[in-house]
Write a structure and sequence with these properties.
By secondary structure, the protein is of the alpha/beta class. The protein has 2 domains: 222 residues, 2-enoyl-CoA Hydratase, Chain A, domain 1, CATH 3.90.226; 58 residues, no CATH class. Helices cover 41% and strands 13% of the residues. The chain is built from 11 helices and 7 strands. A 7-stranded mixed β-sheet has the order 1-2-3-4-5-6-7, with helices on both faces. Helix 2 packs parallel to helix 3 and helix 3 packs parallel to helix 4.
């Protein structure tokens, strides 16, 4: 008997992820490694360079529809934003304002801003955010997919929140401050970064899905990510002041309801789950079924 072994989105490289998502043979890379776009700042720190500076950018088709697509390489400096890294992403986004693809697909995998290029990285993050808002204002949807080992923290977490639609796996982690940063700043009693179950309950894909930040939760396989991206491309998104005000009101209500709670299980209980302790062990399909049966999302 032959068993089909599904490939892992989590363990794939940035280039492999693009290959999984786009139509075969359709990807056209912009500023490929042969052009050697690399950070000019890493030599002084004796850090090896990457000729794509940790991000691949280009254009392709998904189900025959044109898209701009980027993928961060979490295996290079944790996918962190530096000067060249950020400029490559911003350049693709701004190019998309002219080429007008059906969607911009962002395969994020980053721990945040590169400390060796902190100021340039912070500026880069704001430029990326501005370009995303410009795309949304013109009606070009920006779709985020998160499922890499670095997750999305710091500036990457903020950028992900700016996108129209967020897809994530259970293994994904999304937040502003990483677990180690919270522990260093607030103390281990506030957040124990060594408690991996706590980290995933708090920042993992399931919790972000239950709060509504992640719109589609998928298993850790490329086929599910591609399917979810295709479904997102079929949706329409409205970017308006009225919608933003409604979201702000929703966030305030959520803060009032859960802000005093410091235990994820208590929050899930308040959301309507009778057995919140069972959620970490649920499959994606089981969790979605539970939500549909009456648990709040």
């Amino acid at each position: 008997m032959k068993f089909k072994i599904s490939q892992s989105y989590l363990e794939a490289t940035a280039r492999q992820r693009i290959g999984f998502i786009v139509d075969k043979g359709s990807f056209k890379e912009i500023a490929p490694p042969s052009e050697k776009p690399a950070s000019p700042h890493l030599d002084m720190f004796n850090i090896p360079k990457s000729f794509g500076d940790g991000v691949i950018i280009g254009e392709a088709e998904i189900n025959g529809r044109p898209v701009s697509i980027l993928a961060q390489e979490g295996k290079f400096m944790g996918g962190a934003f530096g000067e060249v890294h950020s400029a490559r992403i911003t350049g693709l986004l701004r190019r998309s304002l002219n080429t007008k693809p059906d969607a911009v697909v962002c395969l994020w995998d980053s721990g945040g801003v590169r400390l060796q290029e902190a100021n340039a990285g912070e500026i880069g993050v704001t430029e990326i955010m501005g370009a995303i808002f410009d795309l949304k204002a013109t009606g070009i949807p920006v779709i985020a997919a998160v499922g890499g080992s670095c997750g999305c923290f710091g500036g990457a977490g903020i950028i992900t929140g700016c996108c129209d639609y967020v897809i994530a796996s259970e293994e994904a982690r999304i937040g502003i401050s990483g677990p180690e940063v919270i522990e260093t700043t607030m103390g281990v009693d506030a957040f124990d970064s060594r408690d991996r179950a706590l980290v995933w309950r708090t920042t993992g894909g399931k919790n972000r899905y239950l709060f509504g930040f992640v719109k589609e939760l998928v298993e850790n396989c490329p086929e599910e990510f591609r399917s979810a991206i295709c479904s997102a491309m079929a949706k329409s998104f409205k970017y308006s002041l009225k919608n933003l005000e409604a979201m702000q009101e929703h966030l305030q209500e959520r803060a009032d309801k859960f802000g005093s709670m410091d235990n994820t299980f208590d929050i899930w209980k308040e959301m309507g789950f009778n057995s919140p302790e069972a959620i970490p062990e649920m499959t994606v399909a089981e969790l979605k079924s539970t939500v549909q049966a009456g648990g709040e999302k």
